[in-house]
Amino acid sequence: MKLVPLADRVVLKQLEAEETTKSGIILTSSAQEKPQEAEIVAVGPGGVIDGKEVKMHVEVGQKVIYSRYAGSEVKLDGQEYIVVRQNDILAIVED
Amino acid sequence: MKLVPLADRVVLKQLEAEETTKSGIILTSSAQEKPQEAEIVAVGPGGVIDGKEVKMHVEVGQKVIYSRYAGSEVKLDGQEYIVVRQNDILAIVED
Amino acid sequence: MKLVPLADRVVLKQLEAEETTKSGIILTSSAQEKPQEAEIVAVGPGGVIDGKEVKMHVEVGQKVIYSRYAGSEVKLDGQEYIVVRQNDILAIVED
Amino acid sequence: MKLVPLADRVVLKQLEAEETTKSGIILTSSAQEKPQEAEIVAVGPGGVIDGKEVKMHVEVGQKVIYSRYAGSEVKLDGQEYIVVRQNDILAIVED
Amino acid sequence: MKLVPLADRVVLKQLEAEETTKSGIILTSSAQEKPQEAEIVAVGPGGVIDGKEVKMHVEVGQKVIYSRYAGSEVKLDGQEYIVVRQNDILAIVED
Amino acid sequence: MKLVPLADRVVLKQLEAEETTKSGIILTSSAQEKPQEAEIVAVGPGGVIDGKEVKMHVEVGQKVIYSRYAGSEVKLDGQEYIVVRQNDILAIVED
Amino acid sequence: MKLVPLADRVVLKQLEAEETTKSGIILTSSAQEKPQEAEIVAVGPGGVIDGKEVKMHVEVGQKVIYSRYAGSEVKLDGQEYIVVRQNDILAIVED
Q1: G43, G64 contact by CB (below 8 A)
Q2: What is its main location (chains A, B, C, D, E, F, G) (predicted)?
Q3: Is F31 at the interface with chain G, CB within 8 A?
Q4: Which of A47, E30, E44, E61 could hold E9 in an S-S bridge, CB 3.0 to 4.6 Å?
Q5: Which domains are assigned to chain D?
Q6: Percent of chain D with pLDDT over 70
Q7: Nearest-CA distance from D13 to chain C in Å?
């Protein structure tokens, strides 16, 4: 069973606290809408969205920092996912 | 008697709690606007909506995760439906 | 005396509680902005509205589910009407 | 002395309570933004408004139902007027 | 010393209470955003504003009714002025 | 050290109270968003901003009335500046 | 490990209080959304964003004043960064 995102949506898997520490990202926990590190597990096809052509610039497997503000949480097969729009992804974290 | 959605609207039938468990999706119940799993029972024709051409990318029978935020609930012949815009559908759940 | 709607407006006549039961639609009464069943009694001409061409896709006599949110109530000759924009009509109810 | 409306504005003269009764329109008085019956006394020229061509579809002398929400009240020579945008006129009342 | 308005802005000089009475306009004083009568003392050049061509349709010396909502008050050489956008002018008052 | 504004931004230096009095502008001090007199010390290049071509119509050295609402205050070398968008400038004050 | 911003986003490193003093910028600390001085450490590629072509006009190494309002804070390898859109950068600080 898997999530196939529509349009410009991207499915993210949040990195666990331990992984987060390992990657060197320490996020302040005082605010609910602070960006978060996650791994991309599925990318929508893009296309014409709200009358505008949207190209996807992210790929499965990338680690990203995203703004949690517009994301929707889903649990599938015991794993939590976050579905965001590509535009809610702020930056890719490269090693 | 059936609902024929207009424009980019999609009629959804929420999956029962038991079905939800069977499919492996467990939704947190703490927030009212959390996404939800549902099955598509009718799809509008798309077309020019608010001056922009909208194509429909979903089909009857698909299981989807949607954002409950903008949906409208309707009861027809004892069955509850949710009418959402295509844009409120976040992802298709595939087996 | 009759109401001739402008632009993309549609005049609706709400179905009475008894009719509603007959048609099999049971609406939850807990929220003010829940969709409602009604019959179309007049349809505006459409045309260029807010700089965008709007075509009318509904007809007099159709039963529809609409979102009450943006509608305006009017009483004419002892009959209550609701004036909505076409976009506030969610779906047509077909037998 | 007279009011010459600019752009897509329309000057309305509200019909008195007695006239309202005569015309068969009874308005609920419980909400401030309910539509109201009025007679058109002046119509703006239309033209390019906010970058979009607007044509005027109403005429002096027509009785209309309008949404009071965006209207501005003015008193001129002891007569009250309402200045609305054409888009705030919901329907024309025809005999 | 004078105010030269930019873009689609218009500089207004509010008519005094006595003048207001003389012109026959009596404004209700219960609301802060009610329209007001004023005389135009300077008109901006119009042009491309927010990506849209705006032409100016008012002239210095005209008496106008405007919506006070978006206006800014300025005092220059002891005289109070109101700077509004042309779009905040509802109608011209002609004798 | 100097501020080089981006896009359609303009750097202003507020005129001191004494200068303000000398120029004849007296501003009401009761509201925080009232317009203010200032001198332009730097003008951005304009260009395509939010998809729209913006031309700059103001120059360094001009005295202007601006709406304080969207401005950002900065202190550089002991001098306070206000960074506004050109659109927040209401009018130029000419002698 | 580094942050690679997407679209029109820019990664900033806030200047320390001491650096801030050295550069002569003194920021009022009374408001949370006041602009701030920072150094650019990464610049997104620009491109078509929300249907509009955006070109990047800033470069790594520049000192800038930005509006903190829309920025997102991230900590990577013990260093705090701010991710903003180019449009949130008000001005470049040149020596």
Answers
A1: no
A2: cytoplasm
A3: no
A4: E44
A5: 9-92 (2.30.33.40)
A6: 77
A7: 18
